[in-house]
Amino acid sequence: MHFSNPKSLTLLVLYQTATGAAKCGDADACIGTEICTTATFTAPVQTTITTCVPTPTCLGVYAKCDFGSTLGNCCSGYCAATLCRSTDKQWPGCQEDGGPCLIVENCCYGNKCVNGICTK
């Protein structure tokens, strides 16, 4: 690769440095609206993975929410005392919407494991 403009080379180095620092598991970096997350599963065997997942469109357990809101903005669908609360007896041993999964049993609230992501 040949650069006639030293600024182009500087930008390439800065880009490589910035993307190198954003490594997430096996991925060089998360893209778009993805976030990097680490999860430990106990089923089928104890496994810890770090991977990119879509940014959740709902609020996770203990996130701030509007009490009595009809928005259903908690992943669990239950907001009490301005915090999203779990309604799944498996939590925190299960992943909420948009969380990583290996099998369907890794997902909370009866969600399915689709392509490694818990999905409503």
How is this structure best described in words?
By secondary structure, the protein is an alpha+beta fold. It has one helix and six strands, in the order αββββββ. The chain has one helix spanning 6-21, and strands at 34-41, 47-54, 79-80, 83-84, 112-114, 117-119. The strands form three sheets. A two-stranded antiparallel sheet has the order 1-2. A hairpin with a 2-residue loop joins strand 5 and strand 6. The longest helix is centred in the N-terminal third of the chain and has 16 residues, at 6-21. It is globular and about 40 Å long. Residues 1-21 form the signal peptide. Keywords: Signal.
Helix content: 10-25%
Number of helices: 1
Summarize the helix and strand pattern as letters: HEEEEEE
**What is the radius of gyration?**
19 Å
Strand order of the largest sheet: 1-2
Signal peptide: 1-21
Keywords: Signal
